[in-house]
Amino acid sequence: MNMNRHWCHDCQQPLTRREMLRSSAAGFGGLALTALMNDRLPASSSPDPLAPKPPQFSATAKRVIFLFMHGGPSQVDTFDYKPLLERDHGKPLPFDKPRIFSSPTGNLLKSPWKFKQYGQSGAWVSDLFPHVAQHVDDLCIINSMHGSNSRHGGALLELHTGSDTFVRPSLGSWITYGLGTENQDLPGYVTICPTLTHGGVNAYSSAFLPAVYQGTPLGNASIPSDQAAIPFIKNADGTPPDLQRIELDLLRELNDERLAESGPDSSLEARINSFELAFRMQAAAPQLQDISDESEAIVKLYGLDDPVTRNFGRQCLMARRFAERGVRFVQCTHSYKWDQHDNLKADHARNSLEVDKPIAGLLADLKARGLLDDTLVLWGGEFGRTPVAQGSDGRDHNPQGYTMWLAGGGVPGGLVYGKTDDYGYFAVEKKVHLHDLHATLLHLMGIDHTQLTYRYAGRDFRLTDVHGEIAYDIIA
Asked: Who contacts 260 (Cβ-Cβ below 8 Å, separation ≥6)?
């Protein structure tokens, strides 16, 4: 399978046709305009650029759910147990620190939480995640992650796009570009309550990829998840569906006449595709976003009956509903709460209480429905935190060594992969850079990361740029 795509500049169209498209578009929902249109669209090898495409080789994962903990959770307080950190609490770090990020850090700070071993694997998890701990035998915990940037904005973009310095297509955009989506009535990439800071829309942008591959936001971080929905799904003027269908058919007829005269026009075809998708979504999206059909047991499983867990619980439930309907990439964001330069004990405890039960509920629900086998769940933040104190009760940013975990989608459960040093500062064994994580994720989806390329501005780009080594040990 040839995964290469090539850029094609807009062809100029008569003004009257463009005016026709603009005036008719208003009747098909603003989503098509905000999330799927672009002034310059590339050629498409298929009439529908979101049509499913076969993977290059046998894939173990068909879709991704990314649980993003914005701010940077502390690895030494969650999944990376360090007995020496507890023993040497209050002592100086016995080796040189990396360059500080914000303000000076002090001596070693032990975790305020106790760690226990769980499951047949005996993986260590702190008291912050008692519900997730019950699922450790389904988790592949990577304790040797590292990145290149210690600032939220750069680190967040590196995690999401592979670059901490340039605007690049996001991970979800690359995956949707490479594989299309399984449901033609919904976007291929959905991000629920995305962050407004530290890169904002660039974290789910398609950048120079066709706009059809960018993430469709449901609300944002300032909106409760029960108010986050696909926007503008109803027509502002109340045009009935049968009349919309006539309008779309007229556009198609005019388009066919134009193509017969001048040949293929990829820009016009892409715009028509965006309107068609928005039209189809008007029937599919409302039912998907209405969770009244969920049982009381599911409501409790995700914590929707508790005001503490309700907000993130609904995000996780919506992620399952999107995933089971064939959306290729879904992101849930717990934003922006994990940046504890001080008040670590109180704020990390509050954060974990909000997400622990919903995440465990999602894992249990996916597994019970047989979806975990081919759904890859990814958890983590843009970096970790220092094992040394900042102030009396805080930790600074630490991209040198931290934890992320995977579940389902072809990764071995009950595996703790890689190590940081004895105090949890630097990744030292089986190190996994973010480029390596991206390469591995694409491999699990059946894509060779070196071949998923897009030609733009005279060169071929890819998610991993010139980097990325697949971590074959975390592939079952």
From this structure: none
CA dihedral 187, 164, 424, 402 (to 10 degrees): 10
Q: What angle do CA 429, 432, 434 make, to 5 degrees?
A: 155
What CATH number is associated with residue 155? 3.40.720.10
303's torsion region: left (phi>0), alpha (psi -120 to 50) or beta? left
In a domain, 313, yes or no: yes
Condensed to tens digits (0 to 9), the pLDDT of residues 132-173 reads 999 999 999 999 999 999 999 999 999 999 999 999 999 999
User: What is the pLDDT confidence band of residue 15, given thresholds at 50, 70 and 90?
Assistant: very low
> CA–CA separation, 365 vs 20, rounded Å?
46
Residue 115 within a domain:
yes
Q: Does the pLDDT value for residue 5 go beyond 80?
A: no
Question: Residue 328 and residue 322: Cα distance in Å, rounded?
Answer: 9
Tokens of 194: 């995305």
Residue 302 in any domain: the answer is: yes
d(CA 274, CA 253): 16
d(CA 384, CA 80): 11
Cis peptide before 177 (omega within 30 of 0): no
Q: Which two tokens stand for residue 147?
A: 């990145």
Task: Indicate whether 88 pLDDT > 60.
Answer: yes
Asked if residue 76 is part of any domain, the answer here is yes
274 contact partners, CB below 8 Å, separation of at least 6: 32, 36, 37, 212
Q: Which residues of 397-416 are buried (b: 16+ CB within 10 A; e: fewer)?
A: bbbbbbbbbbbbbbbbbbbb
pLDDT digits (tens, 9 = 90+) for 279-293: 777 767 778 889 999
Give the helix, strand, coil percentages of the chain, each rounded to 5: 35, 15, 50
- What range does the domain containing 67 cover? 58-233+281-474
What mean pLDDT value characterizes the chain? 88
Reading the block at residue 436, the tokens are 């390596």
